[in-house]
Specification:
Blueprint: H1 2-34, H2 44-57, H3 66-83, H4 89-99, H5 102-125, H6 130-140
């Protein structure tokens, strides 16, 4: 049984490597076009431009919400800083206390507005019906 578990682990590792390779090959041309200076990283604005460009190519530019994107970008950057140990929970608590709780409410309102806008667009496009919306609202309670 142990050998079957080891084999399953090896297969999963191979699958993960293959998926990472496929994603890397798909992203590389976009990355190279956006990282014009060859720095190995993109600025927040370059990431926003890249996301909008990709959504435009998919015919989904109307779904792009820059404010929501930038909020998500900041959250991801913060998570990376925390994972690297450069920011601690104490740092976050201190910052929240200094800034006040209004920022969290503002972010929550921005995310809610972006979600509502996307739902409205999906309803208009016929990609969702009212029953879908009600089901999502019920599951969020």
């Amino acid at each position: 049984m142990n050998s079957a578990m080891e084999k399953a682990g090896e297969l999963k590792a191979q699958k993960d490597k293959l998926q990472l390779d496929l994603v890397s090959r798909a992203i590389e041309p976009y990355w190279n076009a956006a990282d014009t200076e060859g720095r190995g990283f993109l600025t927040k604005q370059q990431c926003s431009d890249l996301a909008l460009s990709a959504m435009t190519q998919m015919g989904k530019a109307d779904y792009f919400n820059e404010k929501a994107f930038l909020t998500a970008f900041d959250s991801i950057m913060l998570a990376g800083e925390m994972a690297a140990g450069r920011v601690t929970i104490q740092d976050l608590k201190k910052e929240a206390k200094e800034r006040g709780q209004g920022i969290a409410e503002e972010v929550a309102e921005d995310v809610k507005k972006a979600a509502e806008d996307n739902v409205s667009k999906s309803l208009e496009d016929g990609k969702l019906d009212q029953e879908d919306v009600e089901r999502v609202k019920e599951s969020a309670k």
